[in-house]
Design brief:
The protein is mainly alpha-helical and 370 residues long. The protein has 2 domains: 7-91, no CATH class; 94-364, no CATH class. Helices cover 76% and strands 0% of the residues. The chain is built from 17 helices and no strands. The chain has helices at residues 7-20, 25-39, 45-56, 62-102, 109-120, 122-140, 144-161, 165-181, 198-208, 217-228, 234-246, 254-286, 290-294, 297-316, 318-323, 328-343, 348-364. Helix 5 (109-120) crosses helix 11 (234-246) and helix 6 runs parallel beside helix 16. The chain is globular and about 60 Å long. The termini are far apart.
């Protein structure tokens, strides 16, 4: 394969996807499939689908892992490294620039209004994300009673326990594994650990211990960033989530805004590096073993428990997010966003941009936006 695809080509093509990949994982998967399978024929349809299945079994941002996996299949470790840079960096540059604007001490009034408007819609976006994950998870569930229990536990943990929700997600996974193997022989299923305390732990937790897609970062980060370490206000956290949704590239870029609030540009870069490092390592170390991972009953069982708990955590995050809103007009924006996303089933990016426009209008009309 080394002769087929140059590293410069990988950098250019993965960078292109990183620049135009608005809309999160569905868009990323579509663009990668079009590039690698249909346009260039670098991978067969079966190889690409195997990559999707394998990366969905891993914690962390699945579309980022898929992008790295495809580049790894083309050029091994050098391809994976170049593909990761191309896919991640464009969105990172954009979101750090926006973080500097939105988190500055005296942002223009229209910026404050846009942030307050977009932030008001985030709770609806969280529910929309959770609803979109339910059908596939429900279909693969072997026991729908336990599935519902895991979902409710994840939601309750987000509302009640904040940063400790990750323990509930992992616990649900291990409960499901134990349930299915209680009559079988014992086995080993390692849980990825992290370093404790501060920004490194928060960022690493997002990258190494999140199950259920990029949006699960909300319950994993909110309590740490707002309540425990006080790096940002609740309103600023809403802005961070909104920026992660409307910028291209992985939704997990939101962690860079949290890092920027905690430690400026260096904090943003450090948070992004630590959040994405597990995805790269999972592919580099586990790539040759992905077939075995897909066939692992323990891995499948763990995801069947952690997955619905993560969906519940995402949905449950709407409660603390909604409680962050302080102005009556924001409740109207939230209701309109819920109508747009949940009843009309329209896109997330237009919803957030429309909410931002309404926020600018509220600011220009003299309503309180700070």
């Amino acid at each position: 394969m080394d002769e087929r695809v140059g590293l410069g080509t990988i950098l250019a093509q993965w960078g292109r996807i990183g620049c135009i990949g608005f809309g999160g994982p569905p868009t990323h998967i579509l663009l990668l499939r079009q590039l690698c399978v249909h346009r260039r024929g670098w991978l067969t349809a079966e190889e690409f689908e195997d990559g999707i299945a394998a990366t969905n079994l891993l914690p962390g941002p699945a579309s980022t892992q898929l992008a790295i996996f495809c580049a790894w299949r083309l050029r091994g470790i050098p391809g994976a490294l170049v593909g990761a840079v191309g896919f991640i960096c464009p969105g990172l540059v954009v979101i750090l620039a926006l973080a500097a604007l939105f988190l500055s001490g005296t942002p223009p009034l229209w910026v404050t209004g846009a942030a307050a408007g977009a932030g008001a819609a985030v709770a609806a976006v969280a529910v929309h994300a959770a609803v979109g994950l339910i059908p596939a998870s429900w279909t693969r569930a072997r026991n729908h009673g336990r599935w519902i229990a895991y979902l409710l536990l994840g939601a309750a943990a987000t509302v009640l326990f904040g940063p400790w929700v990750v323990l509930v997600l992992a616990g649900c996974g291990f409960v499901e594994v134990t349930w299915r193997t209680r009559t079988a022989r014992s086995f080993a299923f390692p849980l990825v650990g992290g370093i404790a305390g501060g920004l490194p732990w928060v960022a690493l937790k997002v990258g190494a211990l999140s199950y259920g897609g990029g949006f699960v970062i909300i319950p994993l980060m909110q309590a740490d960033a707002v309540d425990h370490y006080h790096w940002m206000t609740g309103a600023q956290f809403l802005n961070a989530v909104a920026l992660g949704q409307i910028t291209p590239g992985p939704v997990v870029q939101t962690v860079a805004v949290v890092g920027y609030a905690a430690g400026g540009l260096s904090g943003g870069l450090l948070a992004s590096l630590l959040a994405f490092a597990p995805s790269l390592l999972f592919v580099l170390i586990g790539g040759p073993r992905f077939e075995r991972l897909r066939a692992s009953a323990a891995a499948q069982s763990f995801l069947d428990g952690a997955g619905p708990a993560a969906i519940g955590a995402i949905a449950g995050s709407a409660v603390p997010l909604g409680l962050t809103l302080h102005h009556p007009w924001q409740a109207i924006v939230l209701a309109l966003a819920a109508l747009w996303l949940l009843l009309l089933r329209r896109g997330v990016v237009p919803a957030l941009l429309g909410a931002a426009v309404l926020g600018v209008g509220a600011a220009l009309a003299g309503l309180t936006v700070g």
